[in-house]
Write a structure and sequence with these properties.
about 200 residues; mainly alpha; 5 helices; 2 strands
């Protein structure tokens, strides 16, 4: 019984996809090694998995092989300092883009969006993060309420002290205003008035 024809399309099952990747990667590296031995070919093989893991095979020095490839296709020399600077910044930009995408995805998850593709492990981790975040928010809210309450209490005490001082000043002024005065003249004054009157009589 012959082997069935393989349909070339993406394998939906992640476990089957990983198993197929491992088998085919090993087979590809084996074929590259055989080609370099049997035909004296200079072979360089670079493989990146869907998760970004890197695999390589080189029959000779891989830097020499890649430099030869760059010359053949007209790419700038990797030993050129200007090229290295460009490559560095290009790599930095790509890394920043990946970081931004990761952060945006996490932000959506924290907002309850795009969580259908998350597994049980990711969902539990997300739940723990949300619980921790809620506890921190509540703690900060409680602390801020305490600070505002302390400020209001301080202000109230200042107003009460000012009110008490104002009442004391008003009380003293009222006592001075309504204090009885002695309108009777002194005896010496009465005698002098009597003498002046007797002179005219």
């Amino acid at each position: 019984m012959g082997r069935g024809k393989v349909v070339l399309k993406r394998i939906e099952n992640s476990i089957s996809r990983q198993v197929t990747f491992s088998k085919r990667r090993s087979g590809l590296i084996k074929k590259a090694f055989e080609l370099s031995i049997l035909c004296e070919a200079e072979v360089a093989l670079l493989i990146f998995s869907s998760s970004g893991k890197f695999y390589q095979f080189a029959s000779h020095d891989i830097d020499r092989t890649t430099a030869k490839y760059r010359r053949e296709v007209g790419l700038p020399d990797s030993n050129n300092p200007h090229f290295r600077t460009m490559e560095f910044w290009r790599s930095e930009i790509e890394e920043l883009k990946r970081s931004i995408n990761t952060l945006e995805a996490r932000l959506k998850h924290l907002s309850g969006e795009d969580i259908l593709a998350l597994g049980m492990k990711e969902l539990k981790q997300l739940e723990r993060q949300l619980k921790t975040g809620v506890e921190r928010v509540r703690s900060r809210k409680h602390k801020q309420l305490q600070e505002e309450n302390a400020c209001l209490q301080k202000r109230l005490n200042e107003l009460q002290d000012g009110n008490t001082s104002s009442r004391s000043v008003l009380g003293e002024n009222a006592c001075n205003i309504f204090q009885p005065r002695n309108f009777l003249p002194d005896e010496g004054g009465l005698l002098n008035e009597a003498e002046n009157v007797s002179r005219f009589i």
